[in-house]
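Today's session is about reading a structure prediction critically. Students often jump straight to the picture, but the first step is always the sequence itself: look for stretches that repeat, for charged clusters, for runs of hydrophobic residues. Only then move on to the predicted structure, which in these notes is written as discrete structure tokens rather than atom positions. Here is the chain we will use throughout the hour.
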Amino acid sequence: MSLQTDLADRWPLPDHHDLRDELLSAWDRDGYHDLTHLHEVLERLEELGVDPTTVALAAWFHDAVYDGADDDEERSAQWAERALPAAYADEVARLVRMTVHHRPAADDPTGCALSDADLAILAADPERYADYVAGVRADFAHVADADFRAGRLAVLRDLTARPSLFHSARARELWEERARANLEREIAELSGA
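Below is the predicted structure for this chain, in token form.
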């Protein structure tokens, strides 16, 4: 089964197949924010056992627009607001906007789940983590190496300064230790240590 077929089968609405197909086309691009990323986020959400419709729709939209620009999430959220049924549009857009900083409120279980699933790549095995890092660099190919390194280090240091990378107890149990090890290794590599 192809990745596109598998993702099409995971579409959380019983209809709106034109929208699903538009989203699949949007995600079908090079770099890290591609169909594989969408697939992995949906897989991680299943592991966390959260509401399968609203948060899955947020996963489908969270990086649907991705140009490496500061307003990618906002444009993705606006697309969700325009395209989704009213019963989902506002909440999905809110969740998409939360992924800008991955800092959901503690009493926001769907926000915590989406953030955790999106950041779960940080706990990938070494080969997948290396592919992720290369994909992120490809996403920002328009940025000079020195600027990318400085920006990436800032992001990684911000993440490691948090008391926990993940918001739910289940995600911390599954991914925290390996994610921290991956981040520390990448920071050392980027710092030339």
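Discussion point for the tutorial: The chain has one domain: 3-191.
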